[in-house]
Write a structure and sequence with these properties.
The protein is of the alpha/beta class. It has one domain (3-221): Alpha-Beta Complex (DHBP synthase). It has helices at 13-27, 49-59, 77-80, 86-95, 127-136, 155-162, 201-205, 214-221; strands at 3-6, 32-35, 40-44, 68-70, 81-82, 100-106, 118-122, 139-143, 168-171, 182-185, 192-195, 212-213. Strands 1, 2, 3, 4, 5, 6, 7, 8, 9, 10, 11 and 12 form a twelve-stranded mixed β-sheet that branches. β2 (32-35) and β3 (40-44) form a beta hairpin. It is globular, with a radius of gyration of 17 Å.
């Protein structure tokens, strides 16, 4: 039976209890559903093979499922990623915490379950999840729905899809952002905007002038 804790929309005893329970569950290798700006996410310890297998099983996906990583502090990035460019650091300074995901090359010495060789990093703009990250360190997080279903914007939606395979749900009400995060690939030169979400190409170019759209990058490759 899963535990659901109402963490509310402001600090209080319920929120403190939820954050402590989430950190303890993650450290045990269990799965936790928590809020981000736009959707509820399914979180696991990226350094626990058992937890990552459970995450993929909960999603109904195989070992090839790419899973992004949320961080709670900018200083964490250099421990996870190699070769962060000046463009990348400028984007981080301007748009984190917030709905911007950066695809970067991972540190080759990392002992985690990530077959891709690169990783998508983001610092979320949600106080509950930031507090959990402060207690746990980086978390592997994917949207908290079964494959092929709509991403959940309420905790109840996530619970309906994932049911009892999750140790803990943190309920912070309906998410506030309509648009998903924008995704920038920093593993190529020039960097490419893979998905225009909360931040448009024009806004991101104010900080990273060399950024190109995915369509333009495809034409250039061709």
């Amino acid at each position: 039976m899963s535990l659901v804790i109402d963490v509310g929309d402001r600090p209080g005893p319920g929120r403190e209890r939820g954050i402590s329970a989430a950190a303890a569950a993650i450290k045990r290798g269990d799965l936790v559903v928590l809020p981000t700006e736009s959707v509820y996410g399914l979180a696991a310890d990226p350094f626990s093979p058992r937890a990552m297998r459970a995450l993929r099983e909960a999603k109904g996906r195989g070992d090839d499922l790419p899973v992004g990583v949320l961080v709670g502090a900018v200083r964490t990035v250099d421990g996870l990623a190699s070769g962060i460019t000046a463009d990348g650091r400028a984007l981080i300074e301007a748009f984190w915490p917030g709905p911007l995901t950066l695809v970067v090359r991972e540190q080759p010495t990392l002992a985690w379950d990530n077959p891709a060789g690169h990783v998508s990093l983001r610092m979320p703009l949600h106080p509950v999840t930031l507090a959990v990250l402060a207690a746990t360190g980086p978390l592997a997080v994917t949207s908290a729905q079964r494959a092929g279903s709509a991403p959940p914007r309420t905790c109840a939606d996530a619970e309906d899809q994932l049911a009892d395979g999750i140790a803990l749900y943190l309920d912070a009400g309906e998410t506030i952002a309509e648009a998903p995060s924008s995704i920038v690939d920093l593993t190529v030169d020039p960097p490419v905007l893979l998905r225009e979400g909360a931040f448009s190409l024009e806004v991101l170019r104010e900080v990273c002038p060399d950024l190109v759209g995915a369509d333009a990058a495809g034409r250039s490759d061709g």
